[in-house]
Write a structure and sequence with these properties.
alpha/beta; single chain; Phosphorylase Kinase, domain 1; Transferase(Phosphotransferase), domain 1; 49 strands; Alpha-Beta Plaits
Length: 972
């Protein structure tokens, strides 16, 4: 009975936590963690507790009720990273490494974690591009995204991270070129605090920009191997005097190797498997530091072995296979004191190979296969491997032909941790292995330990690998000998791979906290191997934790201990009553975040969402049928939130074409944004705002049903993806329609609304090319009496939006106002002028247009205009006379993007300016573009068609709303 009473007491205490009476976690943080948990499988068992900070969720560290560290390495998490991660505003460290089934894109909201200094996502399965928003994390010092499935390009914004010292994006599918800074964009050359550039095993293309290296850099590791780089090796590499490891191998680099005489600290130099020409590079200046050099498989000019080759006093490994070397092998090469391995096969060495004089004490392996050596002289003091297969000295009939030096290379046994003390004992339990120190059967943490540039090639040296084992168990605070390594091999990239087993200090299994600690030590590189092993990374295998116990299995002593602790906590409750009441409000706020429809009541039936006026509630089955089971053939758009499907709703014998926006798991739009967009669209109605027909919130689905916009986004038309190219007058009309929609939100909606994500992909075009503003997921309501109810003219909020469109004043102050939308709209106006994206090839459109206007006036701006504005009008390149109102349009755009919000016009003022431009153009489209037809001379390209421009170019009239440009006109 006593046991039952004690357990009941514990249950009552937990019930207090469950009802939020003594919640210790900030409400928004708690809601964000619950949102993350809802996206993941296999979260730690105690993540079921109601209060993450108060109930000590494993892997969660809190300071003053805010989450400051999330360390979930090797937890076997499955699912996607929800955008709610951006709500952990005080987060400083995020480690999700070695969760192999953590998939989907890295959400852009990660750019909101402005205090983050450590971001580690090694060995997961993340896809998509590296978010540009990472460039906002100015406190970041450690960034490791290696061994995922990331694609896209390296965002130039990373150049903003001037405190970054570790940058590892290796082993992905990242393409494009290496970004360098320009007048309008940052680049990698700005990372002067960085010590590690690990970009190997990707799809990088183009030249290595000379600008990327400078004398201010502190780089020690530059790994660019196994990419698709071309061009010359930049001489500026020689300016980075701190460099220790340089891997440029396995690319398509060409030309001669520049003088790198300043690299006097370099240990590893890999230039193999390129198209390098000229003579072998002179490495004499590196003689005191160089351990490993590989110059194989290039197109170097045939030459005798250079004299400096035998003077590299620190050299351990020399590899120059197929290197164009000929003549006599310098005999003093073999006397180098540190030399272990010589691999010079497939050259043209001849005469006698002399190894009968001084031989270095560590020499283990000499390979001269497939040269032209006629004879060999070997002294008694060398009794290790020598290979001469394929030389005249080994031809049939030669006195050496039967010698082992003329046979294929033997397989040299590699090191393996000894289990000899365990005799014949073996383990049969699931995943159990023998601990080499105790011979106990335990479940170790296993994985692959990979060294990217070791300074040796001998895998049988027991003392070297025993030192490695000791360094691991010492650094990880484990008992002596609790490490096992085996299966050593060099892979196709010349990386040293080995299997690693780390054993728990007590019991058969590791605790979750121990796994998290060890995973972080290996992912954050706090573990440092012996220097000769060089840069490394670790990929952990999935660790299966044992089943969690229950109260019935607890001993009486354990129950008494729990009861005593419970009693102490109950006493604490009485001492913090006032604090508890405050936290009650926070818990209620957290509930709002986790249940965004709670405030709507249950009028929506099964969905828990209401049937709002003007917005119909759809069941999941209805939308599934309308979209043909969400067929890929019906996809008309996609983004971070998910996909948009074309659907056909049938009712009462009729049908209606709609657009169904379906959020995917882990998408950018969470429950709060979903509710927000429904509420906003249900209260605003304007011909230049996309109309909401209904929504679905059921079976874990978030879907919005909009009116169908047949001509897609403004961005699609400007880029040519739709095949519809809009002329100048139509562009002005589209700008005017968009401005009217935003002006309505700012000045006529009740209460007013700030859109917060104005961009060309959120301006849609219907069948008549009427512009309508869409996507209100990030919008903010303006309270009565001015924003925030205080007439301040702004609202303080976390920065959200899209890079390139963000108002710089909003970004710096986190104070949002209607003028923030005005700035974004100004960027859209510049897109309409140029058809360029806001940030393209490292150039920012705002700076480009402003700079051109300041230096060359309108002539400079005209150079930036979309060439199709000229081509489609059959005009000379210098003739802009029939682009009416161009100068006024440019002036409006520039005014909108003024640095200070106070200097920008309001949206109603922008509308007046654009209306004046339309009114001044006597060749308009009629009275109102909302009712104009695209099937007659009112079409924007009717004049061009009458002139015969279409037949001349081979184009055709497209009655869906535009002109289909001939193939001879290449879209931008």
């Amino acid at each position: 009975m006593a046991e039952v009473a004690l357990v009941a007491l514990l249950y009552l205490l937990l019930l207090c936590y469950a009802n939020g009476i003594i919640a210790l976690t900030d409400g928004e943080n708690a809601a964000a963690l619950r949102a993350l948990k809802s996206e993941w499988q296999n979260t730690p068992p105690n993540w079921n507790g109601p209060d993450p900070c108060g109930t000590n969720w494993e892997g969660v560290i809190c300071t003053d009720s805010k989450v400051t560290s999330l360390s979930l390495s090797t937890m076997n998490l499955k699912g996607r990273l929800a955008s709610d991660i951006g709500c952990l505003s005080d987060l400083r460290s995020l480690d999700l490494s070695y969760n192999k089934e953590l998939t989907g894109p890295i959400p852009n909201s990660i750019g909101q974690l402005l205090h983050l200094d450590t971001l580690i996502m090694i060995g997961c399965a993340f896809t998509g591009s590296i978010p540009d928003e990472l460039g906002s994390l100015l406190n970041l010092t450690f960034l490791a995204l290696n061994s995922n499935k990331l694609s896209g390009e390296i965002p130039a914004s990373i150049g903003n991270l001037n405190q970054l010292y570790w940058l590892d994006i290796a082993d992905n599918q990242i393409g494009g070129s290496l970004p360098v800074s320009t007048a309008t964009s940052p680049g990698l050359d700005k990372l002067t605090a960085a010590k590690h550039f690990h970009f190997n095993k990707n799809h990088l293309v183009g030249q290595i920009p000379p600008e990327i290296f400078n004398e201010d850099m502190k780089l020690i590791h530059v790994l660019l191997d196994s990419n698709r780089l071309t061009g010359n090796i930049p001489e500026t590499l020689g300016l980075v005097s701190t460099l220790e490891v340089l891997r440029l191998d396995r690319n398509s680099l060409e030309g001669s190797v520049p003088l790198l005489t300043s690299l006097t600290k370099i240990n590893e130099l890999h230039l193999s498997n390129n198209k390098l020409e000229g003579s072998l590079p002179d490495l004499f200046a590196m003689r005191h530091s160089l351990n490993y050099v590989d110059l194989s498989n290039n197109s170097f000019t045939y030459s005798v072995a250079p004299a400096w080759l035998a003077k590299l006093e620190s050299l351990t490994t020399l590899v120059v296979e197929n290197g164009g070397l000929e003549g006599q092998v310098p005999p003093d090469l073999f006397g180098l004191p540190q030399l272990q391995t010589v691999r010079l096969r497939h050259n043209s060495f001849n005469n006698t190979l002399k190894m009968d004089t001084e031989i270095g004490p560590q020499l283990q392996y000499v390979d001269f296969e497939y040269n032209e050596i006629q004879n060999v002289a070997v002294g008694e003091n060398y009794n290790r491997i020598l290979l001469l297969l394929g030389n005249p000295a080994c031809e049939a009939g030669s006195f050496l032909s039967s010698n082992k030096i003329c046979k294929p290379a033997p397989t040299d046994a590699s090191y393996k941790t000894s289990l000899s003390k365990c005799g014949t004992k073996s383990c049969h339990g699931h995943d159990q292995k023998l601990n080499p120190a105790t011979c106990a059967c335990q479940v170790p943490l296993t994985g692959e330990l990979i060294f990217r540039s070791p300074s040796f090639s001998d895998l049988s040296n027991a003392s070297r690998f025993q030192q490695l084992e000791a360094s691991i168990w010492r650094n990880l605070s484990l008992p002596a000998g609790y490490v096992f390594i085996c299966c050593l091999r060099f892979d196709e990239n010349n990386y040293l791979n080995m299997q690693l087993q780390i054993f728990p200090p007590d019991g058969k299994h590791f605790k979750r906290t121990d796994i998290q600690r060890i995973g972080f030590a290996l992912s954050k590189q706090t573990y440092k191997p012996p220097h000769e092993f060089g840069p490394f990374f670790f990929i952990a295998d999935t660790y299966i934790f044992p089943g969690e116990g229950n109260l019935n299995s607890l001993s009486l002593g354990a129950i008494v201990g729990i009861a005593v602790a419970s009693a102490l906590v109950i006493l604490l409750i009485f001492g913090v009553t006032i604090y508890a009441l405050k936290q009650k409000r926070r818990a209620e706020k957290a509930l709002e975040f986790s249940k965004p429809f709670a405030s709507w009541g249950a009028s929506g039936g099964e969905s828990g969402a209401p049937k709002l006026k003007g917005a119909r509630w759809f069941s999941f089955q209805e939308l599934k049928m309308a979209s043909n089971n969400f067929s890929e053939a019906n996809v008309i758009g996609s983004g971070g939130y998910g996909k948009v499907y074309k659907g056909i709703l049938t009712a009462l014998g009729g049908s209606e074409i709609v657009a169904i926006k379906r959020a995917q798991q882990g998408s950018m739009q969470g429950g709060t944004e979903f509710k927000n967009e429904i509420e906003l669209l249900s209260r605003v109605h304007h011909k230049n705002l996309v109309g909401l027909i209904g929504f679905c919130f059921e079976q874990g689905e978030q879907m919005l049903v909009y009116e169908y916009m047949s001509n897609g986004t403004l961005r699609d038309s400007l880029s040519g993806r739709t095949g519809i190219y809009i002329d100048w007058r139509r562009r002005v009309r589209i700008a005017l329609g968009s401005a009217k929609g935003l002006s309505y939100l700012h000045e006529h909606a009740n209460p007013p609304i700030i859109h917060r994500d104005v961009k060309s992909t959120n301006i849609l075009l219907d069948g008549n090319l009427t512009a309508k503003v869409a996507d209100f997921g990030l919008s903010k309501l303006v309270a009565d009496g001015g924003i925030d109810g205080g007439g301040k003219g702004h609202v303080s909020t976390q920065v959200k939006g899209t890079l390139g469109y963000l108002d710089p004043e909003y970004y710096m102050t986190q104070q949002l106002s209607e003028k923030s939308d005005v700035y974004s709209f100004g960027v859209v106006l510049m897109e309409i002028l140029t058809a360029r994206q806001p940030i393209e090839r490292g150039k920012y459109i705002v700076r480009e247009v402003k700079g051109a206007l300041e230096t060359e006036g309108m002539n400079g701006v005209k150079e930036l205009l979309d060439p199709l504005l000229i081509q489609l009008r059959d005009l000379d390149a210098d003739s802009y006379a029939s682009l009416p109102g161009l100068e006024s349009f440019v002036n409006v755009a520039v005014q909108c993007v003024e640095e200070a919000a106070a200097d920008r016009p309001t949206m109603s003022e922008v509308v007046k300016e654009l209306e004046a431009i339309v009114a001044s153009d006597k060749v308009g489209y009629g009275h109102d573009n909302s009712s104009s037809s695209v099937a007659s001379d009112a079409h924007p390209y009717a004049a061009l068609l009458k002139k015969g421009g279409a037949s001349r170019g081979g184009g055709s009239f497209d009655y869906s709303g535009g002109f289909s440009v001939p193939s001879t006109v290449e879209p931008k």
